[in-house]
Specification:
The structure is a single chain. The chain is of the alpha+beta class and about 100 residues long. A five-stranded mixed sheet has the order 1-4-2-3-5. β2 and β3 form a beta hairpin. The two termini are about 20 Å apart. The structure holds zinc ion. Zinc ion (ZN) binds next to loops.
Length: about 100
C-alpha cells in the first residue's frame, strides 16, 4: 500500500521496515527512488530528506511503499504528470 509521508517522525519509524521511498524535490524537479534505509532517505542524517520541512515550505512530497514495483510506478507517474521532472533511481541504495 502506498502511504504519503508527511513528517520526519513517520519516516524515521519506517527505517527498519523493508520498503521504498519516493522523494519528490520541487525546486530540483526531481523524483528519486530510495530504499528507506538509504542515508539520503534518513531525516536524521544531515544529507537526508526532511519531509516535515518540505511540507512546511511546499518544496517536496514523499511516498512510501513496501513494494518496489508500486513505489516505482508512483515515481514514474509523478515524473510524467509534472512538467520537466526527471525520474532517477538513487545510485547509492539501488540494489
Ligand atoms: Zn538512496
Amino acid at each position: 500500500m502506498l502511504t504519503e509521508i508527511l513528517t520526519d517522525e513517520q519516516l524515521i519509524k519506517l527505517y527498519t521496515t523493508p520498503g521504498y521511498l519516493v522523494a519528490v524535490d520541487y525546486p530540483k524537479k526531481e523524483v528519486k527512488l530510495h530504499t528507506v534505509d538509504c542515508m539520503l532517505a534518513d531525516p536524521i542524517s544531515s544529507i537526508g530528506v526532511k519531509p516535515s520541512k518540505a511540507r512546511e515550505n511546499k518544496t517536496g512530497e514523499f511516498w512510501y511503499s513496501e513494494s518496489r514495483d508500486e513505489a516505482n510506478s508512483k515515481a514514474q507517474e509523478i515524473a510524467k504528470n509534472k512538467e520537466g521532472y526527471t525520474y532517477t533511481i538513487c545510485p547509492i541504495c539501488n540494489r
